[in-house]
Amino acid sequence: MTNQLKKYDVFEILDKVCAAKTKKDKINILREYDLMPVRDILQGMFDDRIQWNLPGGVPPYTPNRPESVPSNLMRQHLKFKFFVKGLRDSERLSSLKRERMFIDLLETVHPKDAELVLSMVNKTPLKGLTKTLVQEAFPDLIP
What we know:
By secondary structure, the chain is mostly helical. It is 52% helix and 0% strand. It has one domain (3-137). The chain is built from 9 helices and no strands.
């Protein structure tokens, strides 16, 4: 990973994709920023095999202030395994513990990254981003 890639949050990368005018440009941006956190968000959003072990909708959380976020999705995406139905790490947690961890994650990252995570969990695609586009950019990611 180059230093240039480290400068962006996940929401900034996906904002670039959504703002691109052509399909080719969107695919090129996705491939340029081919990072695990970006792939995790896209797979969680579009892969029908992934079901979230969380209640739908928006949980009661307090968004962080953008200027004072203690972490980001580049680090926090590793916690997604605790929220996926059927995974051992998720199933061994009580609902209360899992939901508390999820709220903590949302409150730890940039508010726009938190919105992105909520879109992923609720399977609500971003405007300008489709499953077909993601499959074309990353043929190995989603069947």
